[in-house]
């Protein structure tokens, strides 16, 4: 896919709003596209409700609509389908799903935010496609719509003309990716800086950090060790060093990791170091030797082996790819989430 698409005229963004819609799912993307107009973009953003009337969001805020769905006659470049907390009720609303289908027919790209993916799936628009949603709902999406390939922790996923994103703020990441696609990375970067958000959150990046995925341990000694590794990955975190700091034997420390973390101490440390190196490569210009030293890998070669083993790319290739939102990058098809 080509980045920086030449645009001879304004690009139209239509955001569908409905009763119970989540406010940030709507305003986040709108802010991105509106901000882009100040840095060389040319977007015409409009909201549409089923009957053109204002709607009340899940936060209780009233939100106006620029037009009714029947007035959306010409094709639009981007259609945004936000989500809402009451998605289980929304996907049973046949009239609402019909509106989504009709709007999709006129869109060059249809993008959902958070549980908006459920509306697309219920409308039959994600059959056979990869998709993302809020991590809390990924298994429900997979269970209810087995023909959808759910990538459970991606920030956003692009499959053909469909884009789906994770929870609330991920709609901003998705919108930045579209701005980059339309007008280039420089414009998208300027928008991210203006909004004080990160540009470097590519679609394939996990919604989680390694430390946040570890279940809360009842043992304070283990919690201290886990936190120390996460806070200072470049320090000495051999098994014996961690056991010594915790005041337990090496065998006991190994057993604690197995019971509480579900992995070995060495694997946990490597995962944390890998994540720390990814962040440094995404956001800085330090030499590989500096990144390897700061994150505890010691040498660029050790870091390279870890990247290839876990991510399938070298650190240099990772840095090059993730200097942008990664919207055009090719990623292997993910495993489906088991219902």
Automatic annotation (TrEMBL):
PANTHER family from the UniProt entry: ARAC-FAMILY TRANSCRIPTIONAL REGULATOR, HTH-TYPE TRANSCRIPTIONAL REGULATOR RV1931C
Stretches assigned to the HTH araC/xylS-type domain: 223-321
Pfam family, one: DJ-1_PfpI
Protein name as catalogued: AraC family transcriptional regulator
Key words, A-Z: Transcription, Transcription regulation
InterPro entries xref list: Class_I_gatase-like, DJ-1/PfpI, Homeodomain-like_sf, HTH_AraC, INH-QAR
Species for this entry: Streptomyces antimycoticus
One term of GO molecular function: sequence-specific DNA binding
Top-level division of the source organism's lineage: Bacteria
């Amino acid at each position: 896919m080509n980045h920086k698409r030449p645009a001879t005229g304004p690009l139209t963004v239509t955001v569908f709003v409905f009763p119970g819609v989540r406010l940030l799912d709507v305003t986040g993307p709108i802010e991105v596209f509106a901000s882009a107009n100040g840095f060389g973009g040319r977007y015409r953003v409009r909201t549409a409700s089923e009957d053109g009337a204002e709607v009340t969001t899940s936060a209780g805020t009233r939100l106006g609509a620029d037009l009714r769905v029947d007035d959306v006659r010409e094709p639009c470049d981007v259609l945004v389908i936000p989500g809402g907390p009451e998605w289980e009720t929304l996907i049973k609303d046949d009239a609402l799903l019909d509106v989504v289908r009709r709007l999709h027919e006129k869109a060059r790209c249809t993008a959902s935010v958070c549980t908006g993916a459920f509306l697309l799936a219920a409308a039959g628009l994600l059959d056979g496609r990869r998709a993302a949603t809020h991590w809390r709902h990924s298994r429900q999406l997979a269970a209810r719509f087995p023909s959808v390939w759910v990538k459970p922790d991606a920030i956003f996923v692009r499959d053909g003309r469909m884009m789906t994103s994770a929870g609330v703020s991920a709609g901003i990441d998705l919108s930045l990716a579209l701005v980059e696609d339309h007008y280039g990375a420089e414009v998208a970067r300027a928008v991210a800086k203006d909004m004080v958000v990160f540009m470097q959150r590519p679609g394939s990046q996990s919604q989680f950090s390694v430390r946040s995925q570890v279940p809360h341990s009842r043992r304070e000694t283990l919690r201290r060790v886990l936190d120390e590794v996460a806070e200072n990955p470049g320090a000495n975190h051999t098994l014996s060093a961690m056991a010594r700091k915790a005041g337990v034997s090496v065998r006991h420390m190994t057993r604690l990791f197995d019971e509480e973390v579900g992995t070995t101490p060495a694997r946990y440390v490597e995962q944390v170091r890998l994540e720390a190196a990814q962040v440094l490569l995404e956001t800085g210009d330090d030499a590989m030797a500096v990144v390897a030293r700061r994150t505890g890998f010691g040498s660029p070669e050790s870091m390279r082996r870890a990247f290839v083993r876990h991510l399938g790319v070298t650190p240099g290739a990772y840095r090059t790819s993730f200097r942008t939102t990664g919207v055009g990058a090719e990623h292997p098809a993910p495993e489906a989430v088991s219902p």
